[in-house]
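ugh ok so i messed up the first submission bc i forgot one of the chains. this is the corrected input, ALL of the components this time, i swear. 540 residues overall. if the numbers dont match what u have on ur side tell me asap before i send this to the collaborators (the ones from the other lab, u know who)
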Amino acid sequence: MINSVRNTVLAIINKNNYGYISPSDFNLFAKQAQLDLFDEYFVNYNQQINEENARVSGTGYADIKKGYEEVIDSFSVTATLAQNAANVFTLPADYYIINKVLCFSGGQLKGEAERVSQSKITLLNSSLLTSPSVTYPAYTLEGNLITVLPVSFNGATDITSQYIRYPLDPKWTFTTIAGGSPIFDQSQADFQDFELPIDDANDLVAKILQYAGISIREGDIFKFGQVEEQMQNQQQ
Amino acid sequence: MAYIDQKKYYTNDGANPTDLNWGSYQYVSLADIVTNFLLMYSGNHSLVNNEDRFKILFHAKRGIQELNYDAFKEIKSLQLTVYSDLRFVLPSDYVNWVRISLFKNNTIRPLLENIQVQSALSYVQTATASFTYDADDNVNTQTSTLDSSRQDGSLNSIYLNQANLDQDNNPPFNEDYYDTYIGARYGLNTETANMNPTFTIDKKAGVINFDSTMANEQCILEYISDGMEGGDDTLITLNKLFEDYIYAYIKYAVLNNKFGVQEYIINRARKDKTALLRNAKIRLSNIHPGRLLMNMRGENKWLK
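and heres the new structure output, hopefully the right one now
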């Protein structure tokens, strides 16, 4: 998909000889555009839930939320967290949202830890009825470290997390430059296509055009990208 | 989670204790209650949304505690020997008592609660009635004469008719004037007619105090707890007859404490909860025709 997006972007930009964006610039814009759209999935998902609650959303093929869920779930990863100290574990570098923290003891699942804010954890620990237990563990987040309570969860493989990762940085790769133009080569080791679904190609083009328009100081291109994006959003 | 098979039910698959699962089908665990509530009554399209799990857990436990206080009939029993200190220390999970009995000669004798004070704290006093203090400026205490007289058996009690003239055929001339006449009465006071030991419960001290006739006797305490099983969440259970009620209770408790929830929604939840509690209590009351029959058999007894 990345090559077709790039070709479209270049075709629009070059229409009136506005300019040219290099592969490295394109990769930067592509990364930014993908992150923007990735973020929007979560906002749109929430919007869709509100619409369902307002009974203005349908089921079956009209179930838009399902589509958003599928895209978000395609970034889901389940991994054992690395132990940092006794009951402190390191979150993966690429996590966007922690969805679940599962606590094991002796290889057996004991419970799902609940995230508790730093402002509540001291009170929670002193509560007789609700202090974190093996059945109902809790964790707090500090930097990229989580502290799991109770402290009995202190084994190297005791904590597993299911989380949503960031999409990988897209990279349009090329091998040779023939006639002044780089030729697309997806066999390169560092090639990375967009990870969003194909139907996001239009949005990606619009987003990249906006960044490219600013880069080459062409207001028309920026506006074109903006209008394109607004139209896409209205359709959704 | 799956239902356990019959072998595990009857034998716990050979693991100790083998009777672990007996009767377990009557109950639903706390873990199930919290999980089911979060799955079925909480979420994007439910009245309860974005609530921390620990709040659900709290309300579930509070609901179970409240049920244990009255609606359940989960009465625990503990038998202990009362020694010469005439005290029965309350069990660690004690909340309230149901009945206290003396077990003697293979007979259970329910005991009466003594409404008179049975135990008191006493300060050390000098001859001038002032108090003495220890190094931390706390007043010095001692065993009260009330306690010592109770323990040595010299304490008089209204429950043993000791001041009743009818009890003693001797003329009262050689007895203490107070014991004999002031507060004394003729005939049997049925309210206090009891030859068994009596007790008072000192809730703050965490003990049951008996009179001296209870020394070296067996005492059976029937009591209720709050169902928290000493803080072990895995052991907390709820009778299935109350399962719907506990969900309604949690829902009501959450909505009632949430900002901006319309009053009619709270009222609906409250009515749900109340109606389900009533239903569950009726179910648990277990009015069996067979029991009624047994009670009514005496109705047509022939008097000879």
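quick check: The longest strand of chain B covers residues 96-104. that seems consistent at least. The CA atoms of residues 202 and 261 of chain B lie 44 Å apart.
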